[in-house]
């Protein structure tokens, strides 16, 4: 999406990160730098922690594995209208806490039935109505409205209707937003997901700065900086990235669904949350049977391991995610005589001189092949540049299987060279991962680094596996091309000798 300004653009780009499914977690070390909650200071409609609190302190929420807070949430929901459930909260093997079956659950059975009155949406009532009115008056987008709403409700503690829900949320959401820049550079150097994590972090910072400049600074009584600051927004965005759902049967409305967002993800299921008009509640339909005590899963969507790490903070076991992919960065050659013309063609269709394409075990997208054709095409094909760029952008109704046989060998070789350079980076990281410097003087920091490094190793192994498969396919195709050329040359020489 094109920026409208250097700051406001950041505000707009975040909307693209919210997808149609939930949500959250995997085992994580206990948050660092978390100070005990302090008595809030009263403001007009909000409350704040003491100004001296640590920059990394979030004074609400709980430890990631707190079952007690989740059980308190279930009791509150039940007393507030949540029907009897066939699920209960518990400690689980996949994730630190999750929902397990209380009774036998049949395949195709509908579970949860969370009524709309217990769902947080952009229309939810604010404990501080004036704050909500200011944001709506300034046409703040729904997802950003929810992020601010979450902070506002958390800050008033027990005065908020959602205090039990907020108390059950993790103080430190599982996402790459909580990795420092040095950690991203150190552990994800080989993966393209690093760039996306940096972009997302920059977007969050830009969004907060835009809100602060346009709204918060003009209404300090409603949005005191002690409450509405960069760290609390990092927390609220982490919650939304990992838990927000879009409900197709409610015209795509975005929402936070307490209790339902305790469900963990499995790559083996395809069921997701939606609003059921007949029962008038948020439900999901199981696609397999569950026995009593067995953890019940949901799908967060068909996401790669890198995307799951980016938003939810975990990496599935290598080879278990059928939607897994690895991104390959292709770039124009600046030494190309037609570099300017090719760049102009790409920019015309919304692309840049460098672009990331997803690779799967089964192959690569047509758009990447079109991009590669453009990169290697000679000046004599100048009139084809726009056509190639249009197909690469996926913004054309032109024939997608358009081929340039005369460019196949050079295009495949270009992709292969890029692929092998990427494999070399992964291999280097994996070889050196066993000798990473660790600070043994700080046990908490040591545990964090070990955990982050393990996540990075798991991600790199899964992405390198896909790159190896791509390398194999490309080498086969190049071999076939050369074999065909050799066969054609042999036939030609045979005919030439015959006529001689």
UniProtKB/TrEMBL annotation:
Keyword Lyase among record annotations: no
Domain SET span(s) in chain numbering: 85-301
One GO cellular component, as annotated: chloroplast
Pfam families (UniProt xref): Rubis-subs-bind, SET
Record keywords, A-Z: Methyltransferase, S-adenosyl-L-methionine, Transferase
UniProt name for this protein: SET domain-containing protein
Positions that bind S-adenosyl-L-methionine: 243, 264-265
Classification of source organism: Eukaryota, Viridiplantae, Streptophyta, Embryophyta, Tracheophyta
Binding site residues for substrate: 243, 261, 275, 300, 312
Organism: Saponaria officinalis
Gene Ontology MF: a single term: [ribulose-bisphosphate carboxylase]-lysine N-methyltransferase activity
GO BP annotation list: methylation
